[in-house]
Specification:
The complex is a heterodimer. Chain A is built from twelve helices and 25 strands. In chain A, strands 9-8-7-3-2-1-18-19 form an eight-stranded mixed sheet, covered by helices on one side. Chain A has a seven-stranded mixed sheet with strand order 10-11-12-13-14-15-17, covered by helices on one side. In chain A, strands 23-22-21-24-25 form a five-stranded mixed sheet. In chain A, strand 4 and strand 5 form a beta hairpin. The longest helix of chain A has 20 residues. Chain B is an alpha/beta fold. Chain B is built from 13 helices and 25 strands. In chain B, strand 22 and strand 23 form a beta hairpin. In chain B, helix 7 packs across helix 10. Classes of the chains: A alpha/beta, B alpha/beta. At the A-B interface, helix 2, helix 7 and helix 8 of A face helix 2, helix 7, helix 8 and strand 20 of B.
Chain lengths: 483, 479
């Protein structure tokens, strides 16, 4: 098999005359707003006219760094295949663009000419927002059999591991894993960092070692593949502080170092355009239809190297470029969303843990556990605090807003935009939102609650609204489906 | 002090002229609707104000209907303060306010002096299910006899915080412990809230069940509360008022005390029937009977006979709705609409819950891999007519499907309930706990804490749906 990396988590897998694409993003950038300003890293241009004929496209899940309508639309005669838990709106959207779809079950072998592909569900402890990932097991049909397991953004399927352990499948030769760490430099907060923790700004320490340990050792504990390919984290976002690319996100560099430290495995971090082949020995070639933008890359590297910030304060900037008029209906929607989010938060694991702690340590007179700070463009703020004895949000004054242990700060216009489908939570986080919380565990960030409640897992309707608008130019009028 | 058991989890603690009521249910039954009564068991007569001494204070440990009984509290004079913990849901405070009660809201461990008693409410152990999150375990000490210190467990476990206070000598260990038996083990053929239609005849969960129950009610405290000498029992003290009902297995406090005493040393386990009083001034405590509050011995014996005669393998299916049958099609439409309006929020809350996690990770069933439809709710309208809705995991919404008899085998998770009853649940006429223990069926795979009913207990709890609690309380207002 030949594994051609196309950037971030996109792959072209070729064997004999068979070509399959995995999660193709072929543009230089993506995103769920018209700005399309999340850029693939390392930056590259793909000459789409030179892509070979594709026999099938596999879509692992619904996130917009995997599911890209403009790229899929380049292949109107190729079936787009996904698992049983792919959201209906994704299927509807793809169909409405006149493309071919095929839904399949887990554990069933799909035959695409010389290759066999089986989809597996992720480990049940995968976070909710990655729980719709289908992990792919691909093998060549004829001997000598070669196999690869693509883990994507989720914990490795226990079903898959069991199948391998029961010797119903042999351990895959290669495993493709993703490094989604998105580690920002000093002075810039990461998506799930605690904005009230000074330590979050003074990033120091062997973060790369921790990362490698989690990625290459812990994550792969139960699956002993000899060849590991690292991809993922292959994009840059337009932060207020322009710092270039994320730390430890150049998978090529990372893999090089990892290879020198972990000697019993081969670790490869390809660049876009590189093709990996493991027949007798591992060879890496390049295809001529993917061109790295070296000058842009150098600029980003230079920016990263020169970036220096001692800032102890994070600055967030709004994402949505236009202002939404707050009609009566939209205000009602906002109130309804607050009621529902409040009830969700109190009953969620995170919220319940927060309440448990709060009941012991709270010394204030108020019963507020969570605060929304909604920023307006005129420098005023709206404060909504969640009362744990009523599970309702109350609009409060700035004075009362101190000392509330959990909270999220973002732009009111962005939040309204999200609940109206103009953009998704993924666009807002990092750049336009920050949160504070108790404890060191990033998964205690209330932003995780926003992922669970506002991202695709609970709100496929919002994702659909957003993407339908965004990609309206790809929709074939007479084929539009409605959910 | 004198300790009188009132039934279920109600107590009257007295020291000379100071009398404290804890979680009092004074009528002979509780329940929000006339269609479903939970009789106090062992059965006793209703208690009116004349049967009680002058009450000095009422303590409420939590918001659940078998502890917070509005009709009972309303019998007591409004000059009597009601003591509750700070994190008791606001809807309870609101109704007490509306009924003009004097409320004392306590911080965790704050000392309140009422007559001859000092009272402290401690928020319970955090290692309990979500629906028990707001339970307090009161600590009551007798100021006239410092060796009489009572800890009432209520529906929680002793908190680590309290155990630490005892360990570092900030608090004296209680000498009297009122242990909670919430086992509610149903006889075979009788439905329990967490029962599973897939496991009707299974004995799996019943292995060593009485032994485990005994251990859990006697074992919880002894190491960390070293001064405990006397243990009383609370809980599992009701029976559904229906012709075929049987009391819960191993619920007789006297039996539990007997076994516990046989197998213990240094601790005296005392099982009281409603109306019995333990006079702690003596050692061993003297047990006497209240003149005005009496266990109905005849009824008790009748149930014991029923128990011996019953066909223990008979399974009681859902027979009829609690709230009557439908007369008009328009009523069916009306009720269905309210239910359908609830579905969108219900679907979202399911997907983010432990139950939802289980749904997502159950990818195989009887015939192999399954698709995105794994959970149904069947709303029964009549013997011939039902409306079934399936949760579509790929749209996070409920969709109506054909009702047939195969749902049991097609979908690994399901709930069966009468449309009328579920409507009244949404209408604030009955609480989920009442419905789940009496007139709802479920089937599921895996642990009961991730079951549909466990989810519904959270979803419809007073913490999450104070709006429904308020509707429920409405009928008690100014009545």
């Amino acid at each position: 098999m030949n594994y051609t990396f196309l950037g971030h988590q996109s792959w072209l897998i070729t064997h004999k005359s068979t070509n399959i694409l995995i999660d193709p993003i072929l543009n230089e950038s993506f995103g769920s707003t018209d700005k399309q300003d999340i850029e693939i890293f390392p930056p590259r241009k793909i000459n789409i006219h030179k892509i070979p004929i594709i026999d099938a496209i596999f879509l692992s899940h619904e996130h917009f760094d995997h599911f890209h309508i403009p790229s899929l639309s380049l292949f109107p005669n190729t079936p787009i295949i996904y698992g049983p838990l792919m959201f209906q709106y994704v299927e509807d959207l793809i169909k409405s663009c006149g493309l071919l779809t095929q839904r399949t079950q887990f554990f069933e072998k799909i035959s695409i000419k010389d290759l066999e592909i089986t989809l597996f569900p992720p480990d049940e402890n995968t976070v909710l927002w990655e729980s719709r990932v289908s992990q792919l097991y691909i093998t060549t049909k004829q001997k000598p059999q070669e196999s690869v397991f693509i883990a994507v953004d989720a914990l490795i399927s226990t079903d898959f591991i069991e199948t391998v352990n029961n010797e119903n499948l042999k351990t895959p030769d290669i495993i493709i894993i993703s490094n989604n760490s998105q580690i920002t430099p000093q002075g810039v907060l990461e998506t799930l960092d605690n904005c009230r923790d000074p330590g979050a700004y003074s990033k120091r320490g062997p973060l790369g070692i921790r990362l490698l340990e989690e990625l290459v050792i812990d994550y792969l504990e139960e699956l002993n593949c000899k060849i590991i390919i690292i991809c993922g984290g292959g994009f840059t976002k337009k932060y207020e502080s322009a710092f270039g690319s994320y730390l430890f996100s150049d998978q090529r560099e990372l893999a090089k170092i990892a290879s020198m430290l972990i000697l019993d495995k081969k670790i490869i971090g390809p660049w876009p355009g590189e093709t990996i082949n493991i027949n007798d020995e591992i060879t890496i070639n390049s295809v001529d239809w993917v061109e790295i933008d070296h000058s842009k890359y150098s600029k980003l590297v230079k920016t990263k190297t020169n970036f220096h910030s001692t800032s102890k304060k994070n600055v967030i900037k709004p994402t949505l470029e236009f202002k939404i008029e707050i009609t009566e209906n939209i205000w009602k929607l906002f109130q309804k969303e607050l009621i529902e989010f409040g009830r969700y938060f109190i009953s969620s694991d995170l919220g319940d843990n927060a309440v448990k702690n709060f009941m012991h340590v709270n010394t204030t007179k108020e019963n507020y556990i969570f605060l929304f700070i909604f920023k307006n463009d005129n420098q005023t703020n709206l404060y909504y605090a969640l009362n744990i004895n009523t599970s309702y949000f109350e609009c409060i004054t700035e004075e009362k807003a101190f000392g509330i242990p959990f909270g999220v700060e973002c732009y009111f216009n962005d939040f309204i935009g999200m609940i109206c489908g103009y953009l998704q939570i993924w666009d807002i986080v990092g750049v336009s939102m920050q949160a504070w919380y108790i404890g060191n565990d990033k998964l205690m960030s209330p932003i995780c609650c926003l992922y669970n409640w506002y991202a695709e897992p609970s709100r496929p309707d919002l994702a659909y609204l957003n993407l339908k608008k965004l990609w309206s130019r790809f929709v074939k009028k007479n084929e539009e489906c409605l959910i | 002090m004198k300790i009188m058991f009132l039934g279920q989890q109600g107590w009257l603690l007295s020291e000379e002229e100071t009398h404290l009521l804890v979680d009092p249910i004074l009528s002979d039954h509780f329940g929000n609707s006339n269609s479903l009564k939970f009789q106090i068991y062992p059965p006793r007569n209703s208690i009116n104000q004349d049967s009680l001494p002058n009450i000095s204070a009422i303590i409420l440990t939590n918001e659940h209907l078998d502890h917070f009984h509005i009709p009972s509290i309303k019998l007591i004079s409004r000059s009597v303060p009601v003591i509750i913990g700070r994190y008791t849901p606001q809807c309870i405070i609101d109704i007490l306010d509306e009924e003009k009660f004097k409320i004392i809201i306590c911080e965790n461990g704050e000392s309140i002096k009422i007559g001859n008693f000092e009272i402290k409410l401690f928020i319970g152990n955090m290692d309990t299910p979500f629906w028990e999150r707001r339970v307090y375990h009161p600590y009551i000490t007798n100021q006239l006899n410092i060796n009489e210190r009572v800890l009432i467990q209520s529906d929680t476990l002793v908190s680590d915080h309290f155990k630490n206070l005892v360990k570092n000598l900030t608090e004296k260990s209680p000498t009297i412990f009122i242990s909670t038996n919430n086992s509610q083990i149903t006889e075979k053929g009788h439905w329990g809230a967490f029962n599973n239609l897939y496991q009707l005849n299974s004995d799996e969960d019943n292995i060593n069940i009485f032994f485990r129950l005994l251990k859990s009610v006697c074992d919880e405290f002894y190491k960390e509360l070293p001064d405990v000498q006397f243990v009383f029992f609370s809980g599992t003290g009701y029976i559904i008022d229906r012709p075929n009902s049987l009391p819960f297995k191993f619920s007789n406090t006297k039996d539990i005390a007997l076994f516990a005493n046989e197998l213990s040393c240094g601790i005296n386990f005392i099982g009281l029937y409603p109306g019995e009083i333990a006079d702690m001034a003596n050692n061993p405590p003297l047990i006497s009977f209240s003149q005005k509050i009496k266990t109905n011995q005849l009824l008790l014996e009748k149930h014991q006979l029923l128990h011996l005669e019953s066909n223990q393998n008979h399974y009681y299916p859902l027979e009829s709705p609690l709230f009557g049958h439908y007369e008009h099609q328009s009523d069916i439409e009306n009720d269905l609409n309210l239910v359908k309006n609830e579905h969108p929020f219900l679907a979202k809350m399911i997907i983010v819950s432990k139950f939802g996690k289980l749904l997502l990770s159950t990818n195989q069933f009887i015939n192999g891999p399954i698709n995105h439809e794994r959970f149904i709710i069947k709303y029964i309208i009549s013997k011939e007519h039902a409306k079934t809705f399936v949760l579509d995991l790929n749209t996070i919404s409920f969709r109506e499907i054909e009702s047939d008899d195969e749902t049991f085998f097609k979908f690994p998770f399901g709930v069966e309930v009468f449309l009328k009853d579920f409507y009244e649940l949404l209408n604030g006429k009955i609480q989920i706990w009442e419905l789940a223990t009496s007139n709802l069926r479920q089937w599921y795979l895996g642990d009961f804490l991730c079951s549909p009913v466990a989810f519904l207990f959270n979803y419809f709890s007073e913490q999450i749906r104070p709006d429904l609690a308020k509707l429920l309380y409405k009928k008690h207002v100014h009545s």
